[in-house]
Amino acid sequence: MPVIISPSNNKRMNILFLSLVFSDRKHVNFYEELLAVFVRNGHKVFVACSNDSRSIEPDGIQEWNGMTVLRIKTGDITGTTNLIKKGLATVSVDYYFKKGLKIFFKNEKFDLILYPTPPITLANTIAWAKKYYGARTYLMLKDIFPQNAVDIGMMSTSGVKGLIHAYFRKKEKFFYSISDTIGCMSPANVNYLMKHNPEIGKEKVEVCPNCLSVPEKEPKFKRDNIDLKKKFGIPENAVVFIYGGNLGKPQGISFLIECLRYVRNNSKAYFLIIGEGSEFGKLQQFVDVEKPANVKLLHYLPKDEYQIISDQCDVGMMFLDHRFTIPNFPSRILNYLASGNPVLAATDPNSDIGTIARDNGFGFCCESNDVKGFEKAVNDFIAANREEMGRKGWEFFKENWSVERGYEIIINHFQ
Fold this sequence. Notes:
By secondary structure, the chain is of the alpha/beta class. It contains 15 helices and 14 strands. It has two domains: 7-212 and 403-414, 3-Layer(aba) Sandwich (Rossmann fold), CATH 3.40.50; 226-399, Glycogen Phosphorylase B (Rossmann fold), CATH 3.40.50. An eight-stranded mixed beta sheet has the order 3-4-2-1-5-6-7-8, sandwiched between helices. Strands 11-10-9-12-13-14 form a six-stranded parallel beta sheet, with helices on both faces. The longest helix has 22 residues, at 83-104.
């Protein structure tokens, strides 16, 4: 049920949310779902977001589901795979955001400024806005940059690239210093942040996980996927594993291919891979050349169409590149649990998402360099009571990772 806090216990606030991405008519961003809880509780929400080539919305102010949204024309950030073009646009975004706030929100008064990472390059805008509006600041730490780029070889700590890293690392520390509170995705994220940034006071760091709206209807934990199996030619007795989302370097697609190759003769398991990203071509080549009988690769699907498929699958899968030293928390797990899917998590040794799933009874996990461990997890799911695991995941999701829970954690600072 939606969280509604009585007026006597909660100050009605003006909230400014700053982010590169936000919902438009084609894409619904999960941040909108969290902000909608603030709106339901009587707060006035303003959004400032980037409006690059990917967006179909006009520049400027528009009313959006009870919020005032400022779409700021910037360089090409989300609509390009050109790293140089993307990098220049990301660095310059600070200038455009500050200019936009000065023009459109000059006379507003904000009590709270909310912002996620990426990007840390909004630091100067946030520092200015904090002082200008006299607002509290809350960072929802979703990516730990630049270390995540170093981990997967996109950045270096030495040589010429080391100078770039030093610039962003200095910007990162400034970003943390101007944040009154930092909400991390999991306990492992809190520990990592404190270990590598000891100057941050413990009192300003807490767990504020990724969150999603809880569907009105409880999912069907006992799967009826005969139609799905007929559509894709899946054997009737096969357990259907689904991966949906980005197919890029952070997901360690080479390991995913190794796994699919290793279990290609398992007739009791079938793998649906749905998504897009820079590494999609590698998967396409594997499927085209080796033609595994238990793998189906599909390109990006509209949200509604994908959801119908996900609701009929038996297990959701997550992959993270084994080189990561930062504990990532893929938001994809929320969609799986909302569909009633238990989770197979193949992650780096620093992420705690797999152990959270295992320890709470809604998943199995392995490290993302252990192909035999992946095979074991697949066989464990084939033998498991997946209906019971899905129900445990659903209950854990409702109690810990709902947008209402995220709202409670943030608003607690203003009680």
